[in-house]
Design goal:
Layout lengths: L4 E2 L1 H8 L3 H9 L6 E3 L2 E5 H10 L1 H16 L1 E6 L3 H13 L4 E6 L2 H10 L4 E4 L2 E2 L4 E2 L4 H4 L5 E15 L20 E4 L4 H12 L13 E2 L2 H9 L5 E5 H7 L2 E15 H4 L2 H11 L1 H7 L5 E2 L6 E4 L2
Parallel strand pairs: 4-5, 4-6, 10-11, 10-12
Antiparallel strand pairs: 1-3, 2-3, 6-13, 7-8, 9-12, 9-13, 9-14, 9-15
Length: 305
């Protein structure tokens, strides 16, 4: 092309994406382009300005779409032992698919989804006003996509303590007792949101809880801290307590969902994940864990259309 102008192939190489994704960006009006004799051309100066302003989101989404086509699926958000078992079954039954998951907490998972950094988000955010999970947070957290919410399972959350609960921890005010060391989840985690709700409801200041400021990023870390006697109590799932031989005091049965843009829902990787979740083989594999309810698994809980 003439100096200062690029054709489709050249701009694809310039942006580091597939040529087909350039057409997708043009169609969506996300990249500056014009037609000359029936072909798209791209002024390099305008493309550079576009890159400096809002290109990162557009390019990121295009690259992610290519990864999904190739069989890679990116996930971020909350964590649960079930997700690890799901990954194992996906690799066994669908070796063409790869699931990469980051333990960021529910709030950060939704943020990553809205920014186009991930394909799906795992979430269990509790809304005190409605008494429901996840859906009330969609307008404030997912303004750039058209979200679909699918239930993965319901799980029991509660206090994980040493075997036989030697300190007799049963309710939230017990966390204030002298000598009790708490292990917390990071800010933005669904478990942390639930904790703060109960503390506020019981008028318990966070300063009254030894260890409130000590944060870990997974339920397993909570359980391991108690197993290692580095802490006396933390909030985690009943499955973690059972796996580590700890005692469990149930608090609530919470809704754990998968959230994605509607364009992702019908992709083969997502459908394969849901199919495995509902399969008798998978259910038999997780049955011994207990503390789960799969009665609504795979059900669409929210869709804009």
């Amino acid at each position: 092309m003439s100096e200062g102008l690029m054709n489709t192939k050249e701009v694809a190489h310039y942006l580091g994406i597939h040529e087909k994704q350039v057409y997708a960006l043009v169609k969506d009006g996300k990249v500056p382009a014009t037609r000359v004799t029936g072909k798209w051309v791209f002024p390099k100066k305008l493309v550079d300005e576009w890159i400096e302003t809002d290109a990162q989101q557009g390019i990121g989404q295009a690259r992610q779409k290519e990864k999904r086509i190739a069989g890679a699926m990116l996930a971020a958000g909350s964590n649960d032992p079930i997700l690890d078992i799901l990954q194992t079954h996906i690799r066994k039954l669908h070796p063409e698919f790869y699931l990469f998951s980051a333990n960021t907490g529910s709030t950060e998972g939704l943020s990553a989804l809205d920014k186009g950094y991930t394909d799906i988000a795992w979430s269990h955010l509790f809304d005190p006003e409605t008494g429901t999970y996840n859906i009330p947070f969609l307008p404030s957290h997912l303004s750039h996509i058209e979200p679909v919410v699918v239930n993965l399972f319901h799980r029991e959350l509660g206090f994980v303590v040493a075997p036989e609960n030697p300190l007799n921890i049963k309710i939230f005010v017990d966390l204030c007792d002298k000598g009790i060391r708490f292990i917390n989840r990071q800010t933005g985690a669904g478990t942390r949101v639930l904790l703060d709700y109960h503390l506020q409801r019981a008028a318990i200041p966070t300063s009254a809880i030894v260890g409130y400021e000590r944060e870990v990023f997974t339920h397993f870390e909570v359980g391991l801290a108690i197993l290692a006697k580095e802490a006396d109590v933390g909030l985690a799932t009943g499955a973690i307590a059972k796996l580590l031989g700890l005692s469990f005091v149930p608090i609530t049965m919470e809704c754990f969902d998968i959230i994605m843009d509607k364009s992702v829902f019908f992709e083969k990787s997502i459908q394969a994940l849901i199919e495995i979740l509902l399969s008798p083989e998978f259910r038999a594999r997780v049955a011994h864990l207990g503390n789960y309810d799969f009665s609504k698994s795979g059900k669409i809980l929210y869709s804009m259309n």
